[in-house]
User: What shape does this take?
Amino acid sequence: MTHKAGFVNIVGNPNVGKSTLMNNLVGERLSIITSKAQTTRHRILGIVNADDYQIVFSDTPGVLKPKYKLQESMLNFSESALTDADILLYVTDVVESVDKHSDFIAKVAKEKVPVLLVINKIDLLKGNADLLEIIDRWKALLPDAEIFPMSAKENFNVASLMTRILELLPPSPPYFGKDALTDKPARFFVTEIIREKILLAYDKEVPYATEVIVEKYDEKPNSIHIMAVIYVERDSQKGIIIGRNGAMLKRVGSDARRDIETFFGKKVFLELFVKVEKDWRNRENKLRAFGYIEQ
Assistant: This one.
């Protein structure tokens, strides 16, 4: 029996459902999902193992025109996904305009590897005529792509996409251990969960100006003690994050703790602190320290 393995990289614009799709394909909640753009900042690998195959899914940040150094680094993660894929999943939806970020789509069109185009959120359409019109427009832009209309939220047509991925997977030994679920350490998922709660709890620019670093992660057989620092860019943001009498920070902490306990299946003691790191999104040394630029 020939073993198959390969990298399936998920790319597309912000907010089209890339993270929801990846979580459906992997079967674990690895990528944080909120309705806000720029939720995913890193490339996150999710690994699916069976006796005769290993699929390494890679969720990338949404493609955007960079406004500051952090976003430049996020775009680099997305563009690097074009160079090391065995199969490329380009995810769009029925809402966004077809030619958004056409320069990136042009790069996808030149790909030599199989491109599977996922048109997500078809549950929002009234009828088939609208879907056929969207498919025709995409066929003109990506003539070689195979098209999969889908609703990742409703889990509709995800199974047929998975079947096609398995058919296209090249013969190869596994790239990771067969018990691996991701390439990221436990601390990474703690920071992602806390960051998700910040995205849900605060408005405007505040969530995008925050970064979370785990300073202590002490795991015992039945419990984990975590100390994490939320970095912001300005003193005024620190006040907003903490809230009146610490109420907002307490809410973020309790919401995050519940999800971390579910993720790891253990009792969690979570302490959160807030510090100001001026203009960190434009400082290369800070972006390196926070893992956005390779060492």
User: Anything to note?
Assistant: Residues 133 and 139 are 10 Å apart (CA to CA).
